[in-house]
Amino acid sequence: MELNIPNFPVDEIENIIFDFGGVIMDINIGRTLAAFNNLKIEGMKSDDIISGHKKFLLDLELGLITPSQFVEAIYTEYPAAKNVNEKDIWDAWNALLQPYDRARIEMLERVNARYRTYLLSNTNFPHRVKFKEMYRKQFGENFDDLFIQCFYSDEMHLRKPDQAIYKEVMETIRLNPQRTLFIDDNEANITGAREYGLWAYHLTGGESISDLFVPCSN
């Protein structure tokens, strides 16, 4: 498979960095918000999860608090939830993770034959455990093996769109930014990547990464 993106120097791209949520796996934040509401954990908004507007959500994404501290923060932030057990909180938190699209995963495997591929995700430990478990159950393999290397915000203590995370990724993989494409569904993350010097494509309007590739011509 090879890139087919109008107005991009696709012939110069050798490396691709993929976002995870909304790019590799579909995310339905409404399911988590509805599950929390059912547990009397009311008032959390979609943008709180995406942008980390609530400090404890940001801290979880940066790996600055443990899962247990996250649960305690839920109890503090939403007192009506104090009688909710931890399993129900984690089930609600992970409800946004949707089953993998098999065709998309198979396409990624073909893309790997043409490009060096990496993953860069703003995520958190509970989500990582769950989406890797889902991948293993669905495909019988390890999710991280899809890529040369995976970069996760909670392990790096950095997050998109901060310049520091792009800098650390590129210094780690030691590749030319001008030969590297970053694909994400968040406009702020795309802006940050472009400011660093990467080529970046904003996946929008119901697009799938499958729309960006065609079979190799040779």
From TrEMBL:
Signal peptide start-end: none
CDD domains: HAD_sEH-N_like
Gene Ontology MF terms: hydrolase activity
Highest taxon of the lineage: Bacteria
Pfam families in the record: Hydrolase (PF00702)
Keywords: Hydrolase
Transmembrane residue ranges: none
InterPro entries: HAD-like_sf (IPR036412), HAD-SF_hydro_IA (IPR006439), HAD_sf (IPR023214), PGP-like_dom2 (IPR023198)
NCBIfam families reported for this sequence: HAD-SF-IA-v1, HAD-SF-IA-v3
Name of the protein in question: Putative hydrolase of the HAD superfamily
